[in-house]
Fold these 4 entries.
Entry 1:
Amino acid sequence: MINRRKSKEISIGNVKIGGNNPVSVQSMCNTDTRDINATSEQIRKLADAGCEIVRLAVLNKDAAQAIKELVKISPVPLIADIHFDYRLAIECINNGISALRLNPGNIGKKEHTQAVVKLAKSQNIPIRIGVNAGSLEKSLQDKDMPLYEKMVESALNHIKILEDLDFDLIKISLKSSDVYTTIEAYRLMAQKVNYPLHIGLTEAGTLKGGLIKSAIGIGTLLAEGIGDTIRVSLTENPVEEVYAGYDILKSLGLRKKGVNFISCPTCGRTQIDLINLAKQVEERFKNYDKNITIAVMGCAVNGPGEAKHADYGIAGGIGEGYIFKKGEIIARVPENELLQKFEEIVLNS
């Protein structure tokens, strides 16, 4: 049982973050925010995959104006990602955004920061301070200290700006492309403040490599009880980030949304096209929202026994497969009919 760090509870739209709330899964659109049709379609796909919060890049005034329409049609809360221009933050708040990703020390004059914070406070709009290892303030870059300590100092400086303005609806991220640096930054920050933490690695890579690095980094922190929201950043369709996020959370017992899929690695006893079958079964049930375990195993000798904890499973034979339920074989089916029959049994149970 993971003993989670107790953090301050905040709300992003209708999603509660921190406190005793479950770790939420977040992603970011890679569309042009000004393109309302393309962006709303991607938001819908992310939401269908289980994404609970979606971040949008707001690069200019046209993008900030598009927020008004996107908020109306989005099924999940939206966060505006803003750099430097305080006017975009103000417009996004006025257009109904649920939260901001904004570093207050980067938006110029003190009165600009005050204007954003005053409006955010009046509307209960949280601000995520997002520190990236690759873009630290110049004053910190030459300091003789580990990179993760510089990241934490940067975040604390931004936090102080908000706290001095009596603002505490704060979430924090400290991202690096290096696993060790990221882990140490979050560990240190978790000791210093009680604000909720959004965890992930930045620039993690493409699907395969990015998943490995993210699973190690995010998984380590979650196992230590650190983290209130996560994003698995991948150079890939962002929907894959959502699936990966839930897989990490499910593997640690932190979320139980959807299917827990298991399959054996194949061996010389396997006489069915197990690799393709496993991929097809996983694809068929990736949006199935019931909390069940499905297994695809290579042979009838070990399959039902090793996976007897599974709610439903397939065990391969010679040109056929056995469908089992809680370790008991309930059907014997030719290989070319196996996937369809298995789907019928699971969906009609």
Note: The chain has twelve helices and 15 strands.
Entry 2:
Amino acid sequence: MVEEAVSEASPSADIVLTGGGSNQMRVRAYNERLVMSLVRRHGELSKAQIARRSGLSAQTVSVIMRSLEQDGMLIRGEPKRGKVGQPSTPMRLNPDAVFAFGVKIGRRSATLALMDFVGTIRFQEHRIYPYPMPEQIMDFVTDGIASIEGRMRLEERQRIAGVGIAVPFELWNWAAEVGAPQKEMDSWRSFDLGRELEVRLPYPVFVQNDATSACAAELVFGHGAHYPDFIYFFIGSFIGGGVVLNSALYSGRTGTAGSVGSLPVQGRDGRTVQLLKIASVFVLENELKAAGIDPRPLWYSSDGWIDFGPPLTRWIDDCAAALAQAIVAAASIIDFGAAIIDGGFPAWVCDRIVLATRKALDDLDLQGVAMPEIIAGQVGNQARAIGGASLPLFSRYLLDTNVLFKELV
């Protein structure tokens, strides 16, 4: 949590520049970042509210807020009159103050999005492919950024903080499942995507696991404001997720905490398999192929799925039965307030999975288990790209500890 007293040695302490790329946007001082983080978390706050929550003096808060307003980081809300005294003027983040690019690299498609300072996607590009290859992804990102920059004003382009990449762990390990040649996928083993992109782009580049990015987006822009502890499931080509404890992403000793796809569950045939072998979109893709149905619409657009009929219903039921087992197992260890389910599909599909998961609990022994609320994610199918775009914003401007800073090695 950011609501703690901090040193007032210098409200606008040393300004440094980030490494990587040639973009020279300033990195805000600690107390400035604290103020912006509080405003972001609560939507809007007055000077008095910020002083109470931060532990900073009213004078220091006034200096910081004046500076942030002059720099265009904060904008004034409507004055609010209390019982006595002058009305207070709340401040909120200026959506146009800063922009960042977020890239989601999937096993069947990639998305590039430009996000503003409050988490709204302004522009995006999308590409589908049989399987991802390094140079193909490089061209998509660089060409897509150039295309989006061409739709922005010069002053907007000067406020781009960086590029965040959300990418699955060890892409080369899933060649068989996605029907890709192992030799070609092995090219990812020695390819440093972040470093190669920084050579081509004038911005710093950050890299994070895709499911971790999605979880972080839910924490920052979704249900995280109401649930300090939750387990998160994002159903993409392969299911992934994360664990949030005390309003911070918990990565664990090796950085792999929250790898929900590895959880053991029972399938329809009674065999025990990993969750990802059931609750992943590649399973639905295979079922559609077996039924003689073209699966390509799954990858055209996350919002554009059609109702595939019985194969989709069967897949949802299987996902729900497996998710219910995984949630019970997780809740037996940690008293989560919520189990949040989201994925790379339309909201109506997510709602069906959530309802089916709740119903699947009726078949399980819940004695001694304090069950969390099972709810749909608030951020939706763009969570991975939004989480990626959040990386440069948190690196330069905000303070939400442990949300997005454990990068891939």
Note: The two ends are 26 Å apart (CA to CA).
Entry 3:
Amino acid sequence: MTSTTEELSISQAVEAIPEDVFYAFATSQGWRDWLCDSARFEAREGGCYQLSWTSGWYTAGTVRELVKPEKVALAWFGKDDPGPTAVTVNLKSKGDGTQVELRHSGFGQGEEWEKCLEEARKGWQEGMENLESIFSTGKDLRIVRRPMLGIFLNDFDEKIAKELGVPVEKGVRIDRPVEGMGAERAGLQPSDVIVEFDGKTIRGFADMNTAFQGKKAGDVVQVSVYRGSEKITVEMELSSRPYAEFPLDLNYMAQRFREIDAEVMGELRTLFEGVSENEAEFNPSPEEWSAKEVLAHLIASEQYGLHGVAEFICDAQREFTDEFGNVRSQLRAILSTTPTIPELLDRLERNKEEANILVEHAKELKSRKGVLWRMGFEAFQYPGFHDRVHMDQIRTAIEAARKG
């Protein structure tokens, strides 16, 4: 890599043909796959784009040139940059792969521009390394290298705070620490509520993401939690992120998903043995779901998963899930058409299989190793985790029905 005070040039070999690499620079999903956290990209000359990061930094501009699969040129203006610059990406065939030539030009003179150039150099270096990774191994280095506290999360709101005797209503509640990881080694316990991390106030999971910016595995930080009414501060070493190794093969992934789903459905059907329809409709409190509503939530989540695979195929993955699957009116709509326990279980099982069939036949994703790795990472890391967390919720609702 060479640079002057006015221009930055980076060259990166990528193990994929230009037609496949082009999408990484010409679609919203493509930019998110390797560089940024949020993206909007209108793929036409004169179109607008915006890339942003959870750190709060963003850049925006227009598409100056778009020649598939050879070139993408952008007018570039980042937050707090002294002025606009230009980014040009050229893709050239090299053997069985692609040589990516990126030029970032238009930097001026002076201290502000020197800082801007240095930040651009760092960002593009890390990004290009990740671009190579997602096309060779599929691994997103932002995830692989991201440090972890080593906790499972649980809900936290005003009602739960009162039940726990915690004097705050905002924070991140620990469901349980992960065995052998930083949180457990530091002595954190189930239902501890994290309120400070490395000197930063934590009001929810979004604050945790922000606080983790710039951190890496092995860093030691101070974490403050409420354990009941007592505030405790501990030193914690951030853990490296474990991940499962698996082949990036659609047939393998679909079959592994089926195996996980079969285990989960077996556990759910056993859980509902001997449970009456009335018991499954009981709400422990007005705010809490009945066992049937939990099943409806699982069905809605599977529908979201099915749509998510389709969005991957179309290079149009949605960025923000909001409260999808948690809207009570949606759960009641599902229950109105699927009112009984057997019907709900059968519908959930069908939804799972529909998603697996789509994965199996999603030939458009064969060249999207980064997408396949991310799908598998989320599913294989803790198989059936989402379903099993809600099984505890179902048990609680059923027990409350039988006591009431």
Note: The chain has a mean pLDDT of 93.
Entry 4:
Amino acid sequence: MIPPLLSICIPTYNGARFLQVTLEALLPQARDVGSQVEVLVIDDVSPDNTPEVVEAARKYGPFRYIRNKFNLGGNNNEIGAATKHATGEYIWAWNQHCLIYPGALARVLGVLANNRHLDLFYANFRCAEFPQHWPKSAVGGYAKEFAYPANEEFNDRLIEHWHELIKGSSAVCTQSYAHIVKRGIWKEFWGDTYIKENYVDAATTYPHTYMIVCTSFHKPSYYIGAPTITIYNGAQTWGATLTRCKVYVFGLPDLIMHFSRQGLAYRQLVGAKEFSKSQLYRVALDFFREKPRNASRLTAKLLWRSLRYPYLIRPIWRGFIESESSLFARQFISAREAVTASYQYLFYRCRPARWFWSKVAK
């Protein structure tokens, strides 16, 4: 039996509210392209009504439903989907809240079929906000509300080296659903690896991107410009503040370090670090405002980590001060405002300053 060209893997956990719409958008397109594609839903022992939702979706098209015997965790579930369950030549690893664009699957398959000498493809996507933009139904595909495209370039093109795609403006290629990768790369790189703890480094935070960096950083890739799916910010399974702290304090800086070791251009490294700092600032702001359990211990880890990556110091400090979560932070802001007001008065607003600037203007 000839294996399919593409396996779309959807690891899921407690995702029933998303899967209903995700599957009704995808499965009619999968049915239309026949044996070229297989769809896999890999359930990590969800305690919600995922089995019922999945069963009801069978009317839209064919797919395989796999329910793990015990909870593996998100990364192991994603890796296992590609290395143990999928049979396609290429793997497209989705989140449970990806909504495919009408006609996009046939378009993607056409690109793959015409470029089978390549190991890597990058599929552009649209970003929306959850729950504001999440639809109640999207049978056959979704093309309505969204916030912005991940990349502004909509023309397909061959990329000489995969690393040319790394940009801070599109989250430095950290999204699993942006990459379509040959299954052989997944199997050879991960084998029977089992990740014991998530979000401690690049490999346990971004296993898909880390794999590409280690195996294919300098390989050619193909950029599919017209957006293929819509993803939903705010619906991520790692959206809790403590988890986001680990992502942006441990995972992302480690990934950027691997970029640097592979020889990423200085301009791109600067962009990656700016993206990292912007995300960490938002996380630090939430962290210091919420003051979660074990906050003191994690704060110590934040500070210790920043010694290894000095560019993390400023966003952590800024988040701490602007959170106004302590007397020191509030006093610091008051002092800063007083200094700023004094500076403005002495150099711009007082009579001698106004006289000076009037003479300069002449």
Note: The chain has a mean pLDDT of 92.
